[in-house]
Amino acid sequence: MTRVRIDLFTSLDGYTSTTNHAPDNPMGEDWGRLTTAHIGTRTFRKRVFGDTTGAGTTGIDDSYTASFFEGVGAEIMGATMFGLHTFPDDPDWKGWWGDQPPFGVPVYVLTHTAPRPSIPMQGGTTFHFRSGAIEDVLAEATQAAGGLDVRVGGGVGTARDFLRAGLVDELHLMVAPILLGRGNRLWDDLAGLDLTHKVTSEVSESGTIHVTFAR
Amino acid sequence: MTRVRIDLFTSLDGYTSTTNHAPDNPMGEDWGRLTTAHIGTRTFRKRVFGDTTGAGTTGIDDSYTASFFEGVGAEIMGATMFGLHTFPDDPDWKGWWGDQPPFGVPVYVLTHTAPRPSIPMQGGTTFHFRSGAIEDVLAEATQAAGGLDVRVGGGVGTARDFLRAGLVDELHLMVAPILLGRGNRLWDDLAGLDLTHKVTSEVSESGTIHVTFAR
Known about the structure:
The structure is a homodimer.
Chain A: E1 4-11, E2 15-17, H1 31-39, H2 42-49, H3 60-69, E3 72-78, H4 79-82, E4 106-110, E5 119-120, E6 126-130, H5 134-145, E7 149-154, H6 156-164, E8 170-176, E9 184-185, H7 193-196, E10 198-203, E11 209-214
Parallel strand pairs in A: 1-7, 1-8, 3-4, 3-7, 4-6
Antiparallel strand pairs in A: 2-9, 5-6, 8-11, 10-11
Helix pairs in contact in A: 2-3
């Protein structure tokens, strides 16, 4: 059965993304510090960078990163994550991920601007643009996933919309052992999630705290 | 050598204490949920409740609770934690802990109101009231500790004063796997603590995440 999954990076002080976003630094400052453990895993290096040398960490972080990529049949993301707000006037913008994005599945981009035609990419990714209610987009993504999971990929605003609407079966947080002191706050408006979901935590070799809320 | 230690309870969303404090509920609502794991340990039950039946949890939480009570030669706390703000007009107020408080060491209560005479209690605790700078009170407490550690017991405002002043060698957080969504926020103004202190984390059988910042 399809599960709706979210994976997010956060600091110990609860900031999920960072400040000073810019076209040449779309994730903002400090993003590298939040994602060090994930990006350093063998699975990420192989899957995203095409690194087949076997470099990268193994262990608990790598196990979560492998799960991150497994069993996802469709993805949903916000317009900001895709880059529509950074490049609003470029009808040919195809996202940040090059000709062969790492998704490999249909990706539904939420947007309130004029609809764009779908963009098929190499490697199985097709970007679709949808302006409907998130419940409707989720229904379409669930059908496209064919029994696999649907991931809400981000950004944090989109993730929180789905969480607040009670649509998420599993939230996995990668809590980096750092304090950012600024950025977007994850936790506002999410009280009660611990009552509807079971919380489990595990600390990896890198000091990352993996916290999972599962329905 | 004396180390300055702080132990705090926090929720996953970073709230260290709760709302609706009242004379008959001095720690506020939700405090019980924050402290369940600590209070449920065999060591806490024996040390604070005098329970010698062996009841209570063992394991990782109990190990941290045992460390909590070990090696402390003096304690510092804020006026609110002692109860001065709840009972400002009672010159005979002796704190929340009965005739034999669980500290067993000199306790320095920070206050800006008129000085009070020290109060010797049963079991080795003496309450002293000090209105000087926190650095001066810490120097006095350090001398009284005789080579043992000084604990800054709370509340969170007092703890943050010492943390911001760079006076704390070890901060131990007991992060309960719950979301409170309200209360006093731990993390404001503490960015940078991860640069001066090494961060390590461990998850206990109860799901509590023990995070330690150590100089």
